[in-house]
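Pipeline run #58 for the internal structure catalog. This entry was flagged by the ingest filter as a single-chain record with no existing model, so it goes straight to prediction. Upstream metadata was stripped on purpose; only the residue string is passed forward. Reviewer on rotation: M.T. Logging verbosity set to normal.
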Amino acid sequence: MKIQLLVLFTLVNFIADAQVIVQFQQPPQYQFKLEDMWKVTLTNPTATVYQVYLQGTAVESVSGLIADATTASFTLNPGTRIISSFDIMPIKVNSTNGRYDKVIQNIGGVPSGEYEICVSVIDANDGTILGIQCLQQEVMNLTQLELLSPEDNTLIEDGKEVAIVSPVEDDENRITQIVNGSYIVFNWLPPSPVDLSRHVSYEIRITEMLGMQSSYDAIQSNPAFYLQGNISATIFQYPSFAREFEKGKHYSWQVKAYLNGVLISTSEVREFSFGKTESGQIQKKPAMHSGLPGGLSGLTRGEYSNYFNTAAQDGGFENNFVFSGTGKIETQAARREGLNSEVPERFTNLELYPVLTIYGAPFSSNILLSSQQEASKQNLNSFGLKFDLETLKSNLTKRLQDKAGDVIQSELESKKSELENMTALQSKVDELSEAGGGQEIDSLNKILALLEEKVGSAEALKSEIENIGNPENLKENLEKFNLISGFESTLMSIQSFGIGTSYPSYTPYTLSGVPVSGVNIEITPAFFYLAFTGTLNQKAITNTSFKRNLFAGRFGIGGKDESHLHFTGLYAKDDEYSTIIDPSNLNLTPKANYVLGLEGELKLFDDKFMIEGEAVASMLTRDTRAADLESEAIPQFVKKLVQPKISSSFDFMYSAKSSYNIDETDTKVSVGMKMIGPGFTTLGVPNLQTDYLGYEGKIDQKLFNKKISLSTSLKNRRDNLIDWKSYTTTTTSLNINLGVRFPQLPGVNIIYSPYFQKNNASDPVKKIDNRTTMLSVITSYSYPVLEFHSSTNILFSLQQTKTLAGINDFSTGNYMLTQTASFDLPVTFAASLGIIHLKPVSAFSKITTFDFSASFPVFEVVESLLGFRIAVEKDKNKKFGLYAGASVSVLDNINFDLRLEQATYSEWDFLTEYSDLIIRFTLQAAL
């Protein structure tokens, strides 16, 4: 302690006598990057002109010297001068602690610890120190917080709206989750490691996704449907005072972590759907036809037509120009803004999806216009025009269905007739056998053999029909029946061609989910694959974001849904002159990013065995205004190609996965691993979780003709791959999914998912041992009662988190009973009763909910809905709501929908009360 005071006293005296005064800008709290070292202002109070250079050091209290760098020399005139990168470039890193070389290289910063950062002004002529300033800085490198539930792309359904609980995964491979009304539970893992003595708070943002938006774009562009901060636990129960989620809509959500009001971690963005849209409803299968050869009765024209996409519209290939499309206008007026919501009281959204087919080539447009557009956010309004391959495929599939269906049906009927002859002949042979007619029997057997050869195997014909319906063989089957022109065949090699706003998806680790306004092209000529996209990625917003241009391309062999090998490149750069930044904003800097990757997939044994892998390298320049970096370790051609700065960092990732489907036993096994370096960054996938080395195994098994389904997975990962954090954190998770579906018996779904998060600290204050458990049990039964049909669902779910100290422990238990009754009138009644137990450390809360509704037609034209809901939180608050809706379809392609919601909310202490009325009108039309 005496030595430290002596050093401090000497330093203070030196500064007092300094010939040059150094003012060091404080870096962002809990951070330090190499470029922060040179953000200084120098004052030369003398009349002397100096030739100087700067030397910067970062000394950690335990490990000693971590970073030591010097700048180029420059002239320092009398007066005050703010140092810019042009004054001091290039910068040379002289030495670092060998143990932390990778930290400097990969993240451009220093390991976690307590630092003394010093900048000295040195006379270039004699090495004299003319001035120096030091500051103390705590650096905390943390693992990014991880979202747990709802999983990405989950379909969430109100238990009252579900007659029969569907399997855990629907036909679109989406996870299905049943909840009590809008009482969704959001769950995540905290950033690590953070001492138990520090309080981390969280903020959750939920936004509605509009039009063709990705989840990331919705978070960046749209007003928050719900926003809440100062959350202590890592479990959040959607509150009763908030507005209800709307059926058929999509939402995105993100969580941020704060320490003492400073942002320390931002999660990735996930999305979920609330309630099924009309296209997601389960369609009834057509009636079976009997009397055909064995194995073909289930493949009559009605059924294999359903196997093709019957939703495809007639493309009008007989005409040169055909116009079609859909549109929706939604307007809402409310008495007030929702609590904790940024959505305005009144707004209008317009979505248009016109399609113009020119000589068989469909071009579609997506137009989104909304009064919710805000200057302080990214563009919500968008326009895109693209060649629509999916519509072309649907039209060609419909053509194949219409033309080939007649041929196959004729063949089936022909074989039916021949089978009848075979049956008659077999009966005659049996009669003659009893009568002893040997010669005639031999003659009939020969005829019978010829008929059998002509009819062939029913299973083989069934396989042929299924092959015709296989989307992967569409072009081949069209050519087989001479149903595709050369022009259309060429068009099918254009996977995508768009102008305007699009959301290109290359790979999960290069480009996925970000909006690009410009051009997006993807073609597959022969067995080659080519793709390109650019240019505008985000707009400039004062003191919030820079204008960013992004260019990306891919090329290789094989289509992306087939066995392939593709190379990927991406370049993104901010325009540093595109916006005005407040000097106090230390976190907003213009960035540049280079990404190079290789990705491949191999499918074997009729796609039963699959192996895929990806390797990507990235260079991120955190501040393009920083000085150039001088390092002998970097090859000269690399310097010329990417122009590394002192703020540049390099890292890479790789992943591998393999799966095998065993059709005979209905088994699917998959294993995989991935490593993502701590400094790996791609602006094409923002907020990607890094510093990750993980392994995963999964088994899916179906039993008793798919009446029982069992899915189990095990994941394990760790961080601190380059020893840059205080401790290493390991996360292990298990997922067990069991579904039981036997006819005439209640169906059952059980989901159990525990998560364990630990670190290797021995100090109890720094030790982490978090356990998060999610359990869900659902049973459903549908049965007739007298003259109506009834369905009962019972749900129990538990989500809880426990920490070593128990400070932020939290659990929520949900019990729900739903009952529906459908009469032949037709009228359907639905009711749900729920109890929610909330158990934070300091209190206990119980919420009782009840919801009742009736749906019925009026004059056989209007589909109507009436209902009410009640939520009472014991000793705290209550909410009562009425809702009504009416839907009218006109001319089979126009739909009017009107919905009214009235809600009153009050707390027992009368601190918060409101009465809300929402009127929502939607018009949808199709041409």
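catalog note: The radius of gyration is 33 Å.
catalog note: Residues 146-280 form a domain with the Immunoglobulin-like fold (CATH 2.60.40.10).
status: ready for reviewer M.T.
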